[in-house]
Design goal:
- The protein has 175 residues and is of the alpha/beta class.
- It contains four helices and ten strands; from the N terminus they run E-E-H-E-H-E-E-H-E-H-E-E-E-E.
- Strands 5-4-3-6-1-7-10-9 form an eight-stranded mixed sheet, with helices on both faces.
- Strand 3, helix 2 (50-55) and strand 4 (72-76) form a beta-alpha-beta unit.
- The protein is globular, with a radius of gyration of 16 Å.
């Protein structure tokens, strides 16, 4: 069975973006960034919701393009208009069922990119296997939460941690 790994930068107060999709507080350079880009090479598939995919438009991504060329892409949205392309599939309904089937298919680990509502849905369904947090030393106060869900308590097991000179702390948890 393939693992779903939610590998994400987060503020100290649990936001993956601030108001208006602001990511300006995140430390973008340093060894933690190099380690993240190295981890990206280990994923064979990426899954994300519409908001995360369209966020890439601000940085030059074109509709239908794959932001991670070496990965198969699944975009979960009832309303996005991309069309299916080579290595890019839009999933329009039954998101959790599709993710279960994807997990049971052949292939490497699955990168859960972005978060908020889609990550909250996968959390509620018990579909995330590992959480890799790059905790950045600042507070947004509001924005897009790590998990947008009503679920209150979920126990995790910390399996690793690392402090970087940049002030970023890497925390790795298994569910």
């Amino acid at each position: 069975m393939r693992s779903i790994i939610y590998d994400v930068a987060v503020s100290l107060d649990g936001y993956i973006a601030g108001p208006d999709d602001d990511i300006g507080g995140f430390v973008m350079e340093g060894q933690h960034a190099h380690d993240y880009f190295a981890r990206l090479q280990s994923y064979s598939t990426v899954i994300m919701g519409r908001h995360t995919y369209e966020f890439g438009y601000k940085y030059g991504l074109k509709a239908g393009q794959r932001p991670y060329p070496h990965m198969d892409h699944f975009i979960y949205s009832a309303g996005i208009e991309l069309g299916d392309g080579e290595g890019l599939t839009v999933v329009r309904n039954d998101f959790a069922d599709h993710v279960r089937k994807l997990k049971s298919s052949d292939g490497g680990d699955i990168y859960l990119c972005g978060g908020g509502r889609f990550a909250g849905l996968l959390l509620e369904e018990g579909l995330i296997d590992r959480l890799i947090l790059k905790v950045n030393p600042f507070i947004f106060g509001q924005g897009t939460p790590l998990f947008d869900t009503d679920r209150k308590v979920i126990g995790l097991k910390r399996i690793d941690q690392k402090q970087y000179d940049s002030g970023v702390t890497l925390l790795i948890y298994d569910f």
